[in-house]
């Protein structure tokens, strides 16, 4: 059940580029990444694409297929009609290195600014946690760092100017993960808003929609974080208590 | 002359999977300026594919578990070919390494009393695998990645630079280790993927943590990075590889659709009533029950089907024979023309469970998900197509068990790239703990080595010039072959002739074929890309360079497989189906010899170090008799065996009836 498919693949570097037309064989059961590999092996040996596990577990092969942020390895060709032209472009929010490969260093820089896990005085082997308590953060640790949520987020998609103040859904979720970690003693609520731009998020849930791991980023991480930030700032009892000097505010952990 | 960047470190770690990150963390904790060279982006290494868990005798679920039991299980799984010292260190230190991960933020599944939960797995006597659902590898790599970041944050606070003491070189590939005039390691040479620019890493100590060799085979569960880089780099630097014939093939990898060819189908599908059928619809495994297993396996479908509910009064279905038996049977069916359309056989659970489709989804959630999402196959309605897939290499760089030092001064190795720990066959769950235990030891060993040096080695210019010329060669050659074509043929050769079932005549043909491929690999050429200086993100060029490594490891595997005339663990010889106690004493060691511009793999036999008495005492005498020669047995026992041998026809303990299986996925 082979057929010749029409593909448009963006070719170029950080200077400029264009969509290039290819006609390429497609066999039953293949995914878009297979077709990109066939192009490499037969027509375009220098076509740049990033990939690793080919099983939806490493999050390397992020791109946009007909405008939708997707993993190339998890997009089956059977979802397109044989006469449909399939357009593959690099993710838009990050600068292109070449062809389908982008410079995702923004993400690694943001990761470094979030204060790491802090177990306080606990010694290795001493930690005791209940399953029900670890499950909240475990959901967020399913993240494969494909950065599709970062790519789709309108705060930085086409808004380069917001990047310094906004860490994106992936890393706001990381802050949430640490905040909900039963053994962590740091307090990142202040910096979530101040340094990492939690307030920019207006819960359109685009990140949740594109997550290949089906993590409920908005509902389970970002909204609870917003509530915690607000709770810290405006809890009337804490406010009154601190004014009267009988409640001491916790120590805010600064960004790293 | 091509422009070359130079950077200086105390320790350079090649590979950013579990072993590499743990080694780098240790070196940095020891105060060494450290670089991590990662072929992919940071956090994408193949470790993420590990599902089951990390074996560590913490005794959280069954208090009877301890390092001695774990050690015993590991030696049994490896059929006593293991470096017993590595197995001992691994069993003793795994719990600490797991607790340490937790202390760095890992969130394992819990027991009711709040400890780390542990699950059962093939070959492990007690529930022993710390796990996070079926994504334990991802948790391990993410935690190590975040620990690296935590250390970088400390350095940022102190030096104002995150990368002052620990830098990750993402998407950077090392193509040569560099040695000084005294034959000591003095650095590594590589290219940065994004730009194609060359980098010299000056360093007195290098840790190899590059993983496996699966991409030398056509059907594999391994990713593109697994091209045997570390194995080849060690060989080229004068190091040695141990027991490369031991390659773990899993009998049931997906063969269809092509996008997922080689990806594992867990063994529990068969444990949960899944059956294997050929193109005629026949449950063929009943035809493949070897004589030694006749008493333990059902001879009719009706009896086999009763076993799932009543295992005490029925024999198990032959689908649950040991892995090599199942793989051999699948091979035979395909060769006899009774395979599935895509060269495997059918594995099906359709109509096999009393609770119907709902029960299938409940009992096999990850397999249901895997086939649905990756293959658009609904396993409640359709059969899966499966066949053997290359999964893991037990063989690897020969190292000192305590320091992970290779046979080259300044070179260290840990994880899948190192050899010895798993013997002839690895138990499931022992890989992740291996990475942590020996990753740390390699980082420590490298740091101590650096501290012991009186002077830092310098990199000779000639070494850099040679490495540059080698890396540029595919561009210099004109009208050579396409690297993809040569790679495909190499993979086909290894799959067909050095695969799961081996025989002398095929291995000899493989060596001839590899000889011809060697000439073709030397001639592949690529065109520069249209932008920049032509080397930026050039996959064809990268493959052209990786081919050298895959060819070398293929030669090592084929030569060792031809030499070892017995069947044991991950090495099955059709012409020598028995396990031999004499061969157990023999390690096969590969090194390079001949013309340095085109060296060939040389093999030598090296006696296995006898196991320490206190470790021998952990086993029953009857068990030792199965594996060891009479001379190796403790004194009293040896007399007993010699008396028995008078009656038997020879002294070799051929025991194919070993059921302690295996990877358990």
TrEMBL record, chain A:
Keywords: 2Fe-2S, 4Fe-4S, Iron, Iron-sulfur, Metal-binding, Oxidoreductase. Pfam families: Fer2_3, Fer4_8. Gene3D superfamilies: 3.10.20.30, Alpha-helical ferredoxin. The keyword Oxidoreductase applies. SUPFAM superfamilies: 2Fe-2S ferredoxin-like, alpha-helical ferredoxin. InterPro entries: 2Fe-2S_ferredoxin-like_sf (IPR036010), 2Fe-2S_ferredoxin-type (IPR001041), 2Fe2S_fd_BS (IPR006058), 4Fe4S_Fe-S-bd (IPR017896), Beta-grasp_dom_sf (IPR012675), Helical_ferredxn (IPR009051), SDH/FRD_Iron-Sulfur (IPR050573), Succ_DH/fum_Rdtase_Fe-S (IPR004489). Residues 5-92 form the 2Fe-2S ferredoxin-type domain. GO terms for molecular function: 2 iron, 2 sulfur cluster binding; 4 iron, 4 sulfur cluster binding; electron transfer activity; metal ion binding; oxidoreductase activity. GO terms for cellular component: plasma membrane. The keyword Metal-binding applies. PROSITE patterns: 2FE2S_FER_1, 2FE2S_FER_2. Pathway: Carbohydrate metabolism; tricarboxylic acid cycle. Its cofactor is [3Fe-4S] cluster; [2Fe-2S] cluster; [4Fe-4S] cluster. One of its GO terms (biological process) is tricarboxylic acid cycle. Belongs to the succinate dehydrogenase/fumarate reductase iron-sulfur protein family. PANTHER family: SUCCINATE DEHYDROGENASE [UBIQUINONE] IRON-SULFUR SUBUNIT, MITOCHONDRIAL (PTHR11921:SF29), SUCCINATE DEHYDROGENASE IRON-SULFUR PROTEIN (PTHR11921). This is Succinate dehydrogenase/fumarate reductase iron-sulfur subunit. It comes from Actinomadura spongiicola.
From TrEMBL, chain B:
Its cofactor is FAD. Residues 656-665 have a biased composition (Acidic residues). Residues 10-432 form the FAD-dependent oxidoreductase 2 FAD-binding domain. InterPro entries: FAD-dep_OxRdtase_2_FAD-bd (IPR003953), FAD/NAD-bd_sf (IPR036188), Fum_R/Succ_DH_flav-like_C_sf (IPR037099), Fum_Rdtase/Succ_DH_flav-like_C (IPR015939), SdhA/FrdA/AprA (IPR030664), Succ_DH/fumarate_Rdtase_cat_sf (IPR027477). FAD binds at residues 15-20, 38-53, 229, 416, 431-432. One of its GO terms (molecular function) is steroid dehydrogenase activity, acting on the CH-CH group of donors. Residues 487-608 form the Fumarate reductase/succinate dehydrogenase flavoprotein-like C-terminal domain. Residues 639-655 have a biased composition (Basic and acidic residues). The active site is at residue 323. Keywords: FAD, Flavoprotein, Oxidoreductase. This is Fumarate reductase/succinate dehydrogenase flavoprotein subunit. It comes from Actinomadura spongiicola.
């Amino acid at each position: 059940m082979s057929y010749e498919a029409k593909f448009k693949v963006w070719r170029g570097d950080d200077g400029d580029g264009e969509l290039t037309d290819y006609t390429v064989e497609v066999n039953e059961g293949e995914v878009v990444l297979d077709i990109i590999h066939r192009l490499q092996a037969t027509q375009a040996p220098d076509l740049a694409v990033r990939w690793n596990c080919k099983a939806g577990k490493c999050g390397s092969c992020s791109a946009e297929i007909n405008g939708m942020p997707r993993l190339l390895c998890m997009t089956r060709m059977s979802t397109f009609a044989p006469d449909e032209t399939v357009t593959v472009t690099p993710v838009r929010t990050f600068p292109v290195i070449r062809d389908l490969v982008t410079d995702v260093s923004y993400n690694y820089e943001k990761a470094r600014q979030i204060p790491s896990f802090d177990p306080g005085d606990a010694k290795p082997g001493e930690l005791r946690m209940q399953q029900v308590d670890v499950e909240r953060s475990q959901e967020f640790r399913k993240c494969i760092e494909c950065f599709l949520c970062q790519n789709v987020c309108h705060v930085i998609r086409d808004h380069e100017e917001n990047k310094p103040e906004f860490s994106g859904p992936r890393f706001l979720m990381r802050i949430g993960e640490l905040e909900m970690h039963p053994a962590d003693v740091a307090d990142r609520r202040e910096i979530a808003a101040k340094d990492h731009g939690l307030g920019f998020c207006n819960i359109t849930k685009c990140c949740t929609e594109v997550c290949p791991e089906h993590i409920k980023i908005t509902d389970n991480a970002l909204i609870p974080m917003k509530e915690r930030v607000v709770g810290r700032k405006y809890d009337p009892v804490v406010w009154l208590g601190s004014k009267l000097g009988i409640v001491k505010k916790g120590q805010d952990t600064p960004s790293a | 002359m091509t422009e070359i960047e130079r950077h200086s470190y105390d320790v350079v770690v090649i590979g950013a999977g579990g072993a590499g990150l743990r080694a780098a963390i240790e070196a940095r904790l020891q105060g060494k300026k450290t670089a991590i060279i990662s072929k992919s982006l940071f956090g994408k290494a193949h470790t993420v594919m590990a599902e089951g868990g990390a074996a560590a005798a913490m005794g959280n679920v069954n208090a009877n578990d301890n390092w001695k039991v774990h050690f015993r299980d590991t030696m049994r799984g490896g059929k006593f070919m293991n470096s017993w010292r590595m197995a001992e260190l691994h069993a003793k230190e795994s719990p600490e390494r797991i607790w340490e991960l937790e202390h760095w933020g890992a969130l394992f599944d819990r027991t009711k009393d709040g400890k780390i939960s542990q699950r059962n797995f093939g070959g492990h006597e007690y529930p022993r695998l710390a796990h996070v659902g079926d994504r334990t590898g991802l948790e391990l790599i993410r935690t190590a990645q975040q620990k690296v970041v935590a250390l970088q944050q400390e350095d940022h606070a102190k030096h104002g630079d995150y990368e002052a003491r620990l830098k990750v070189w993402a998407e950077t590939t090392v193509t040569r280790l560099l040695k000084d005039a005294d034959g000591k390691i003095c650095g590594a040479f590589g290219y940065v993927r994004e730009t194609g620019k060359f980098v010299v890493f000056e360093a007195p100590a290098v840790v190899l943590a590059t993983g496996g060799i699966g991409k030398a085979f056509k059907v594999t569960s391994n990713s593109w990075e697994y091209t045997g880089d570390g194995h080849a780099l060690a060989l080229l630097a004068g190091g040695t590889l141990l027991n490369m014939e031991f390659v773990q093939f899993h009998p049931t990898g997906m063969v269809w659709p092509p996008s997922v060819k080689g990806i594992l189908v867990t063994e529990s599908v068969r444990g949960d009533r899944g059956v294997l059928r050929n193109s005629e619809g026949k449950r063929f495994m009943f035809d493949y029950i070897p004589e030694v297993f006749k008493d333990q396996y059902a001879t009719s479908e009706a009896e086999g089907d009763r076993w799932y509910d009543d295992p005490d009064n029925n024999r198990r279905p032959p689908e649950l024979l040991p892995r090599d038996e199942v793989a051999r049977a699948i091979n035979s069916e395909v060769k006899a023309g009774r395979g599935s359309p895509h060269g495997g056989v059918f594995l099906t659970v359709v109509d096999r469970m009393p609770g119907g489709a709902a029960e299938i989804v409940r009992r096999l959630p990850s397999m249901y998900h895997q086939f649905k999402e990756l293959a658009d196959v609904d396993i409640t309605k359709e059969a899966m197509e499966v066949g053997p897939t290359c999964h893991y290499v037990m063989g690897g760089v020969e190292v000192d068990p305590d320091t992970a030092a290779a046979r080259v001064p300044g070179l260290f190795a840990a994880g899948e790239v190192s050899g010895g720990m798993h013997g002839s066959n690895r138990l499931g769950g022992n890989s992740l703990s291996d990475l942590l235990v020996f990753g740390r030891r390699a980082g420590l060993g490298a740091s101590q080595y650096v501290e012991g040096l009186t002077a830092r080695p310098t990199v000779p210019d000639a070494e850099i010039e040679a490495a540059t010329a080698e890396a540029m060669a595919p561009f210099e050659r004109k009208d050579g072959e396409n690297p993809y074509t040569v790679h495909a043929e190499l993979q086909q050769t290894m799959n067909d002739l050095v695969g799961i079932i081996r025989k002398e005549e095929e291995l000899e043909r493989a060596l001839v074929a590899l000889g011809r491929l060697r000439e073709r690999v030397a001639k592949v050429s690529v065109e520069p890309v249209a932008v920049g200086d032509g080397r930026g993100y050039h996959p064809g060029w990268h493959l052209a360079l990786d081919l050298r490594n895959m060819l070398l490891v293929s030669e090592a595997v084929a030569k060792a497989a031809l030499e070892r005339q017995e069947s044991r663990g991950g090495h099955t010889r059709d012409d020598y189906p028995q396990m031999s106690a004499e061969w157990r004493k023999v390690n096969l060691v590969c090194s390079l010899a001949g013309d340095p511009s085109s060296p060939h793999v040389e093999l030598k036999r090296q006696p296995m170090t006898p196991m320490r008495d206190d470790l021998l005492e952990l086993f029953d005498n009857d068990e030792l008799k199965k594996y060891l020669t009479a001379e190796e047995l403790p004194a009293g026992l040896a007399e007993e065996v010699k008396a028995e041998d008078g009656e038997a026809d020879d002294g070799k303990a051929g025991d194919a009836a070993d059921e302690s299986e295996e990877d358990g996925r």
